[in-house]
C-alpha cells in the first residue's frame, strides 16, 4: 500500500481505513481487469452462431430461464466484478441501440482484450494499444461500408427482409420454424413502419404469449389482443362493427379528491342520497349508450350494479385493462381515451371491425381479440409454445428479429454474415497495419487477429476445425477478392454467404465493432483499482 | 493472474460436461420418480405437505405429483413445467410426457458420452419427431361423421384414461358419466360448466351424473322446500345493509330518535328492494352475497325460496343452466331474463342437504356427484374424472383417435427406425435413439404391470413388422393383443402433445452448456 510521510515521519492518511481496502495498480490492475473481461466473454463464446448452445440461468427466486440471447444472459447473471459489469453494460447498449448481435459484441470485446494482454506482455504501453485499436476500428468500419450492399425492398417484395430476420432467428431455439416467425416479424414491422420517414415505432407491436399449443400456432394479429374477458359472463362474445368507448373513469360513484364528508342526519337526506346514487349509475350507462358505443373498455373496475346495468342495456364491457394496453387500443381504433363521462362524444369512440373472445385449453382462459381496427397500425404477435420458458425465449427472439427488420428499414445496407464480414475486415485491417509507423502497428495487427476470433468461435461451435476452416476461408477471400465467403455453420456445402442467404445489417456490425473497441479502450486505461476488501 | 470472482458471493456456475450432467441427472431423476405411476397397473404416490396439518394426498396423476415437489434442479423444473402445460392444455398424458422426455435425455446422454455433439442430436431428434408425427397422422381414425361410432370412440377413450386411475374398478360407469357430461357441453371446452360435488360416504359406484344442477346450499328457514315450475332470479347484489356508495357519506345524528328513524328508513329501503325483486314474479331467488335475516323473512313471507351465498361459479353455472341473466338492479322487471326450471327440491346425499334444480331450460351445465369412502379417494377420483373430461372435451373438437396400449409408440418407433436407416451421417444415431426412447414407454407399462417387458416388447416389435397391425400390450391378460378388439383407444391430440412437448423439452435441456445459479434472495429474518 502506498504510504506518504511528512517531514516528521508521520504517515498521511490518503485512503480512509486503508488496511481494509485492497488495491491493485499498474500492470497488475490491467491484467486483472482483462482477465475478468475475458471470463465474461468466455461464458458467451459458446452461445455464438446457429449452432451455439444455450445457458440455463436460475434466478434468485429459483425461477429458470433458458436462453441464447447475450444481453439476457448477462443481465441475469448476478455479476459482482466491476469490469464484468462493464461487459454487461456493453451488451445492454448493443441491445438498446441495435437489438441484435448482443453476444457477438461481447465475444469481440473479449478477443480484443485477449490480444491486448499479449501486447502488454511485449511491453507496449496500454494507451498505445488503445490508440492502435481506435485506428483499426476506423479502418474496419470504413471497410464495412465499402463491402456493404444495398437491399431493395418494398411492401410487396419483402423477401430480403425475411432472409435477414431468418439469419437472426437461426441462432435461437426457435429456428425450427424460423421461416414463419421471420415472416411474422417482417409483416409486423411493415405494418407499423413509416417507409417515407424510414421510421418504425416498435411500441406499436405488442408481443403477447400464452402457454400451450405449438410454436407453429404463433400468429400475427392485425389488431390488439387483450388478456381480459367481458366483465359479465353473459355478455355477447362477439361484436361486429364495434364502436368502442375507452374510459379511464370507473363505473363507480365519484370520489372527489378533496376531503369531504356527507353527513346523513335525517331520513330525507338518506332517501335523496339513495336516489342520487341510483341515478348516477343510470346516467353513466346512459351516456355511453347515447354516444353510440357498442363496447366499453375501462381501466378500472365496475360496481356490481353498474355491471348489471351495462349487461341489461346490452352494452358489453371489459374492465381492468392496463394503461399501456388502453393506449394501444386507442391508437389502433382511432379513439380517444376519455377520462370523464361528461366528455364522452361520438367522435371520441374508437372503431373496430370485429371484437371477439376466444378461449384456450382446458382451463377457463380467455383472450379478447380486437381486429380490423380503423387505424390498422397497431399489431400483436401472439406466441404459443410448449412451456413458459419457450415462450419467453421466443419473445426475446422475435424482439431481436423485429429490431433487425427495423434497422433494415432505417438503413438498407447489409453485410454478409457467417463471419464473412469479420474476415474481410480482418484482411483490410491487416493490410492497413503496415502503413502505420510506430508502435500502433502492432496494436492494429492485434485488432485484425481479434476480428478473426468471431468466425473462429462460429466454426468451433459448429463442430468444425476452427483454425483449418478459418485459414481456408481467409485465403479464399484473399485469392478471389470477394468478401462473401464465411463459415459454413449449417453444413450446407458452400461457404458463399450469398447463396446461403446469411445477411446481417451494416449498422449492427458497425456498432458491434465500435462499441467493443470503446469498452476495451476504457478497460485498458484503468491502472488503479481500489476496492473494499471483504468483511 | 487468477480472477477471484466475477459473480456475487453465493452464485455459482457450472460449465460444459458438468452442467450437462447436472441437468441430465436432474431430469432423469424426475422422470424416474413418476415412471412407476405409468400405465393401468401403475402405482400411486403419497404426498405429504410440509404445511400445517401435514395433509396427505394419494395420487397417480403425474402433474399433481410434480406440482407438489420442491425441486431445486433447474432442468427438473423444465420437466415439471411441461407436465403442467400438458395438464392445462389437454389434461391427460402428464406422466407420459415426463417419462418420454426423460427417456430422450437418457438416450442423449449415451450419445454425448460417445462424442456426438448435442446439436447433432437435436437435429436428429427434430427429424425423428416430425417423422413420428407423420406416422401417427397416417394411422389416425376419425369417426366424426358417424355419431354412434364417435360416441363409442369417446367411451373407449374415457375408459382407457380412467383405467390407469383409482376409478378403474368402475371405469365403465364413470366413462359413461364423463361422455354424457361432455356431450352436454356441445363442443365448448369450458369444463367449468361441469360441476363436481364430492360427498364422503357410500362407494364410488354410487356416484352419479345429474341431468340438472345441484347447488351445495341450504334453503332458508320457513321457505318452501319444493317448487314446481320455478321462475328463478339469479342475482349478485348486497342483501345485508344496502350501503350508500357515494364516497364520504356517513351517518351522523344527534339523538336516539333520529337513529331509530334512519334505521327505519334503512329497513324501508330493504323492503323496497325486496318488493322490486318480488315484482319480477319469481318464486326462487338466488343471490351470490349474503342475505340477512330480515330480507330472508320477507322472502319467506312471500313464499319465495331464497338461497344466499352461492359462490361466483355456482351463480355463473346456474345462470348458464337456467338461462337467466345475473342481475344486480331490479328497476325494470319486464326486461330481466328469468331462469326457468321444472322442479326445485331439497335432496339428501349422505347426510347433507343439497338443492337440486331439475328440468332446466338449457342443458349446458350438469353436476357430477362423487361418492367414496374417504376424502383421499374422492380427491383422487375428482382428478381422474377431470383428466377424462379434459381428454373428452378436446376430442370432441379434434375427433381423431388412435389405438392405445403402446400401439402408437410402436408405430412411431417403426417409422423412425426406418428413417434412421435412410439417413446418412451422425444424425441417424440420434434418430435411432429417439425410437429407443419411444419403445421405453410400452416397456415401462409392461414393467409396472409386473410383466416380462423384454419378451413382450420384442413380440410387439415383431407383430408391428406387418403392415397395418393393431397389436399392443394388453396388461390385463399380460400378453400382446389386438387393441382394436380390446377397445383401447387414445386421443390423437394427447399423443401429439406428448410427443411434441417432450421433444421440445429434451431439446431445450440438451442445448444448455452452462448453468449459472444466482444467489438466493435473502429473506428478512423475522424471528
Strand % of chain B is 15-25%
CATH superfamily of the largest domain in chain B: GroEL-like equatorial domain
CATH class of the largest domain in chain B: Mainly Alpha
- Overall average pLDDT of chain B: 81
- Which architecture of the largest domain in chain B would the CATH scheme give at its second level? Orthogonal Bundle
Give the strand content of chain A. Answer: 15-25%
Alpha-beta classification of chain A? alpha+beta
Number of helices of chain A: 16
Could you say which overall geometry of chain A the principal axes of the C-alpha atoms support? globular
> How many structural domains does the protein architecture of chain B include?
2
Please tell me how large the radius of gyration of chain A is: 30 Å
Low-confidence stretches of chain B: none
Gap from first CA to last CA of chain B: 44 Å
Output the structural class of chain B: alpha+beta
CATH fold name of the largest domain in chain B: GROEL, domain 1
Largest sheet of chain A: 7 strands, mixed
Distance between the first and last residues' Cα of chain A: 18 Å
Number of helices of chain B: 16
Give an overview of the whole structure.
The complex is a heterodimer of chains A (535) and B (527). Chain A is α+β, with helices and mostly antiparallel strands and 535 residues long. Chain A contains 16 helices and 22 strands. In chain A, strands 11, 12, 14, 15, 16, 17 and 18 form a 7-stranded mixed β-sheet that branches. In chain A, strands 6-20-21 form a 3-stranded antiparallel β-sheet. In chain A, strands 9-19-10 form a 3-stranded mixed β-sheet, covered by helices on one side. The longest helix of chain A is centred in the middle third of the chain and has 24 residues, at 267-290. Chain A is globular and about 95 Å long. Chain A starts with a strand and ends with a strand. Chain B is α+β, with helices and mostly antiparallel strands. Chain B folds into 2 domains: 12-141 and 403-517, GROEL, domain 1 (Orthogonal Bundle); 213-362, GroEL. Helices cover 48% and strands 18% of the residues of chain B. Chain B has 16 helices and 20 strands. Chain B has helices at 16-35, 62-67, 74-89, 94-113, 118-139, 147-162, 171-185, 256-278, 293-301, 312-322, 375-397, 407-422, 427-448, 453-464, 483-486, 492-510; strands at residues 12-15, 45-48, 56-59, 141-142, 194-200, 208-210, 213-215, 226-235, 249-251, 284-287, 305-307, 326-327, 339-349, 352-360, 366-372, 400-403, 471-474, 479-482, 489-491, 512-517. In chain B, strand 13 (339-349) and strand 14 form a beta hairpin. In chain B, helix 3 packs antiparallel against helix 16 (492-510). Chain B starts with 11 loop residues before the first strand and ends in a 10-residue tail after the last strand. At the A-B interface, helix 1, strand 4, strand 13, helix 8 and helix 9 of A face helix 3, helix 5, strand 9, helix 8 and helix 10 of B.
Amino acid at each position: 500500500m502506498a504510504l506518504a510521510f511528512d517531514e516528521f515521519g508521520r504517515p498521511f492518511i490518503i485512503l480512509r481505513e486503508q488496511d481494509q481496502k485492497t488495491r491493485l495498480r499498474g500492470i497488475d490492475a490491467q491484467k486483472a481487469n482483462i482477465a475478468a473481461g475475458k471470463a465474461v466473454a468466455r461464458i458467451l463464446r459458446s452461445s455464438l452462431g446457429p449452432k451455439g448452445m444455450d445457458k440455463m440461468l436460475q434466478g434468485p427466486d429459483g425461477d429458470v430461464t433458458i436462453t441464447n440471447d447475450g444481453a439476457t444472459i448477462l443481465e441475469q447473471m448476478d455479476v459482482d466484478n466491476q469490469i464484468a459489469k462493464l461487459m454487461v453494460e456493453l451488451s445492454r447498449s448493443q441491445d438498446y441501440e441495435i437489438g441484435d448481435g448482443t453476444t457477438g459484441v461481447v465475444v469481440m470485446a473479449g478477443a480484443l482484450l485477449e490480444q491486448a494482454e499479449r501486447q502488454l506482455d511485449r511491453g507496449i504501453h496500454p494507451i498505445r494499444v488503445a490508440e492502435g485499436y481506435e485506428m483499426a476500428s476506423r479502418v474496419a468500419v470504413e471497410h464495412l461500408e465499402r463491402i456493404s450492399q444495398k437491399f431493395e425492398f418494398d411492401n410487396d417484395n419483402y423477401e430480403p427482409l425475411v432472409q435477414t430476420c431468418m439469419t437472426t432467428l437461426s441462432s435461437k431455439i426457435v429456428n425450427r420454424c424460423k421461416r414463419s416467425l421471420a415472416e411474422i416479424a417482417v409483416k409486423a414491422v411493415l405494418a407499423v413502419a413509416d417507409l417515407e420517414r424510414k421510421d418504425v415505432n416498435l411500441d406499436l407491436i405488442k408481443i403477447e404469449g400464452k402457454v400451450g399449443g405449438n410454436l407453429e400456432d404463433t400468429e400475427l394479429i392485425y389488431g390488439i389482443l387483450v388478456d381480459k374477458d367481458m366483465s359479465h359472463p353473459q355478455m355477447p362474445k362477439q361484436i361486429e362493427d364495434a364502436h368502442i368507448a375507452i374510459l379511464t373513469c370507473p363505473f363507480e360513484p365519484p370520489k372527489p379528491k378533496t376531503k369531504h364528508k356527507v353527513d346523513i342526519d335525517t331520513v330525507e337526506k338518506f332517501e335523496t342520497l339513495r336516489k342520487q346514487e341510483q341515478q348516477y349509475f343510470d346516467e353513466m350507462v346512459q351516456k355511453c349508450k347515447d354516444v353510440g358505443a357498442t363496447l366499453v373498455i375501462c381501466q378500472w373496475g365496475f360496481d356490481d350494479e353498474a355491471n348489471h346495468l351495462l349487461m341489461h342495456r346490452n352494452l358489453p364491457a371489459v374492465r381492468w385493462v392496463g394503461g399501456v394496453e388502453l393506449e394501444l387500443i386507442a391508437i389502433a381504433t382511432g379513439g380517444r381515451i376519455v377520462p370523464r363521462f361528461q366528455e364522452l362524444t361520438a367522435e371520441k369512440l374508437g372503431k373496430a371491425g370485429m371484437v371477439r373472445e376466444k378461449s384456450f385449453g382446458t382451463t377457463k382462459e380467455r383472450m379478447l381479440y380486437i381486429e380490423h381496427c380503423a387505424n390498422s397500425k397497431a399489431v400483436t404477435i401472439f406466441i404459443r409454445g410448449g412451456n413458459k420458458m419457450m415462450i419467453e425465449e421466443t419473445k426475446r427472439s422475435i424482439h431481436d428479429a423485429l429490431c433487425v427488420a427495423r434497422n433494415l428499414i432505417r438503413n438498407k445496407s447489409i453485410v454478409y454474415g457467417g463471419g464473412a464480414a469479420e474476415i474481410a475486415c480482418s484482411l483490410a485491417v491487416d493490410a492497413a497495419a503496415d502503413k502505420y509507423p510506430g508502435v500502433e502497428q502492432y496494436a492494429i495487427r492485434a485488432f485484425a487477429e481479434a476480428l478473426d476470433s468471431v468466425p473462429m468461435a462460429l466454426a468451433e461451435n459448429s463442430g468444425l476445425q476452427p483454425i483449418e476452416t478459418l485459414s481456408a476461408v481467409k485465403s479464399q477471400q484473399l485469392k478471389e477478392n470477394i468478401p462473401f465467403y464465411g463459415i459454413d455453420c449449417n453444413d450446407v456445402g458452400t461457404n458463399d454467404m450469398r447463396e446461403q442467404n446469411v445477411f446481417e445489417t451494416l449498422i449492427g456490425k458497425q456498432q458491434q465493432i465500435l462499441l467493443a473497441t470503446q469498452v476495451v479502450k476504457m478497460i485498458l486505461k484503468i491502472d488503479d483499482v481500489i476496492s473494499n476488501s471483504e468483511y | 493472474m487468477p480472477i477471484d470472482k466475477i459473480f456475487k458471493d453465493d452464485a455459482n456456475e457450472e460449465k460444459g460436461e458438468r452442467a450437462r450432467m447436472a441437468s441430465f441427472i436432474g431430469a432423469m431423476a424426475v422422470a424416474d420418480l413418476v415412471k412407476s405411476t405409468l400405465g393401468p397397473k401403475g402405482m400411486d404416490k403419497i404426498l405429504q405437505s410440509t404445511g400445517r396439518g401435514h395433509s396427505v394426498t394419494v395420487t397417480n396423476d403425474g402433474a399433481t405429483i410434480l406440482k407438489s415437489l420442491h425441486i431445486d434442479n433447474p432442468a427438473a423444473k423444465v420437466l415439471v413445467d411441461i407436465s403442467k402445460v400438458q395438464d392445462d392444455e389437454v389434461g391427460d398424458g402428464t406422466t407420459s410426457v415426463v417419462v418420454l422426455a426423460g427417456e430422450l435425455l437418457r438416450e442423449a446422454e449415451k450419445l454425448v458420452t460417445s462424442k456426438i455433439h448435442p446439436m447433432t442430436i437435436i437435429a436428429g431428434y427434430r427429424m425423428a419427431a416430425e417423422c413420428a408425427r407423420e406416422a401417427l397422422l397416417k394411422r389416425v381414425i376419425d369417426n366424426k361423421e358417424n355419431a354412434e361410432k364417435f360416441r363409442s370412440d369417446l367411451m373407449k377413450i374415457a375408459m382407457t384414461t380412467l383405467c390407469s386411475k383409482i376409478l378403474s374398478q368402475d371405469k365403465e360407469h364413470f366413462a359413461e358419466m364423463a361422455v354424457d357430461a361432455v356431450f352436454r357441453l356441445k363442443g365448448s371446452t369450458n369444463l367449468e360448466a361441469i360441476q363436481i360435488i364430492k360427498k364422503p360416504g357410500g362407494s364410488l359406484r354410487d356416484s352419479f351424473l345429474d341431468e340438472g344442477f345441484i347447488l351445495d346450499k341450504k334453503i332458508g328457514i320457513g321457505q318452501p322446500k319444493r317448487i314446481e315450475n320455478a321462475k328463478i332470479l339469479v342475482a349478485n347484489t348486497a342483501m345485508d345493509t344496502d350501503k350508500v356508495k357515494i364516497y364520504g357519506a356517513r351517518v351522523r345524528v344527534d339523538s336516539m330518535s333520529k337513529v331509530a328513524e334512519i334505521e327505519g328508513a334503512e329497513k324501508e329501503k330493504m323492503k323496497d328492494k325486496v318488493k322490486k325483486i318480488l315484482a319480477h314474479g319469481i318464486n326462487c331467488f338466488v343471490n351470490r352475497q349474503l342475505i340477512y335475516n330480515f330480507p330472508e323473512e320477507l322472502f319467506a313471507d312471500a313464499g319465495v325460496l331464497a338461497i344466499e351465498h352461492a359462490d361466483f361459479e355456482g351463480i355463473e353455472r346456474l345462470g348458464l343452466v337456467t338461462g337467466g341473466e345475473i342481475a344486480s338492479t331490479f328497476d325494470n322487471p319486464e326486461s330481466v331474463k328469468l331462469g326457468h326450471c321444472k322442479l326445485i327440491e331439497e335432496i339428501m346425499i349422505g347426510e347433507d342437504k343439497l338443492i337440486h334444480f331439475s328440468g332446466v331450460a338449457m342443458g349446458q351445465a350438469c353436476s357430477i356427484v362423487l361418492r367414496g369412502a374417504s376424502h383421499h379417494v374422492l380427491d383422487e377420483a375428482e382428478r381422474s374424472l377431470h383428466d377424462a373430461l379434459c381428454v373428452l372435451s378436446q376430442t370432441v373438437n379434434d375427433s381423431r383417435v388412435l389405438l392405445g396400449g403402446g400401439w402408437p409408440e410402436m408405430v412411431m418407433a417403426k417409422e423412425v427406425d426406418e428413417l434412421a436407416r435412410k439417413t446418412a451421417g451422425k444424425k441417424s444415431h440420434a434418430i435411432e435413439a429417439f425410437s429407443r426412447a419411444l419403445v421405453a414407454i410400452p416397456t415401462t407399462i409392461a414393467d409396472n404391470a409386473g410383466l416380462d417387458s423384454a419378451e413382450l416388447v420384442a413380440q410387439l416389435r415383431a407383430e408391428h413388422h406387418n403392415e397395418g397391425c393393431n397389436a399392443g400390450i394388453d396388461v390385463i391378460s399380460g400378453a400382446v393383443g389386438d387393441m382394436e378388439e380390446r377397445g383401447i383407444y387414445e386421443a390423437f391430440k394427447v399423443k401429439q402433445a406428448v410427443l411434441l412437448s417432450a421433444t421440445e423439452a429434451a431439446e431445450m435441456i440438451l442445448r444448455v452448456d452452462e448453468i449459472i445459479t444466482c444467489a438466493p434472495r435473502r429473506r428478512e429474518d423475522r424471528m
